[in-house]
Design a protein that fits this description.
With 190 residues, the protein is mainly beta. It has two domains: 73 residues, Molybdopterin biosynthesis moea protein, domain 2, CATH 3.90.105; 88 residues, Molybdopterin biosynthesis moeA protein, domain 3 (Beta Complex), CATH 2.170.190. Helix content is 10%, strand content 25%. The chain contains two helices and twelve strands; from the N terminus they run H-E-E-E-E-E-E-E-E-E-E-E-H-E. The strands form four sheets. The protein has a six-stranded mixed beta sheet, with no helix packed on it. Strands 1-12 form a two-stranded antiparallel sheet. A two-stranded antiparallel sheet has the order 2-11. Strand 8 and strand 9 form a beta hairpin.
């Protein structure tokens, strides 16, 4: 017959039970199948996000130095050399006397280092008048602005939800190691 001295507290019983478990093995799965699974290894970005410098505003891509003399009474005139939309990069190079019509998310063209929003210039189809100096990097999201390649994005042990899956895909990860799902059996007695 057992006495109260032989009984375990709930915490002690839990601790003994947990000590008897061994760690679950891991398995490699596609990220798209990972909802609700638990990461078995830290994840690092494979690519920069964004993968290229791009426009943060609709406007004109310019070489900032070309606008250094611009003022309210002395605008700088630039020739529109073409256009670029998100998903449609251009081969046009921006020079000192040119600019490029650009949409939000479009890759920054070669030669350009800033974007001036449409609202801040006077423009027609062929020319743009700039009325103030545009700082280098203005309205530009640089390559790797959000995440840089090899940056840790998730730690081991994270239970994956839709946000995590979107992040993993965005940083170029297609497969991950997760812990195998545990098998559980319940036995009901008396």
């Amino acid at each position: 017959m057992s006495t109260s001295a032989d009984l375990l507290s709930a915490g002690e019983a839990r601790s003994k039970i947990l000590q008897s478990f061994s760690a679950l093995e891991s398995e490699r799965i596609l990220v798209r199948n990972s909802l609700g699974r638990v990461l078995a290894a830290q994840q690092t970005a494979r690519i920069d996000v964004p993968p290229f410098g791009n426009s943060a505003m609709d406007g004109f891509a310019v070489l900032s130095g070309a606008t250094s003399a611009a003022g309210a009474d002395t605008p700088v005139e630039l020739r529109v050399a073409g256009g670029s939309a998100a998903g449609s990069p251009t081969d046009v190079r921006v020079e000192n006397d040119t600019c490029l019509r650009i949409m939000t998310g479009a890759p920054l063209p070669e030669g350009a280092d800033a974007v001036i929003p449409f609202e801040e210039v006077r423009a027609d189809d062929e020319h743009v008048l700039v009325f103030s100096q545009v700082p280098t990097g203005s309205c530009v999201r640089p390559r790797g602005n959000d995440v840089t390649a090899s940056q840790e994005v998730l730690q081991s042990g994270v239970e994956l939800d839709a946000r995590h899956i979107g992040l993993l895909v965005a940083v170029g990860i297609a497969e991950i190691d997760v812990y195998r799902k545990p098998r559980v059996a319940l036995l009901s007695t008396g």
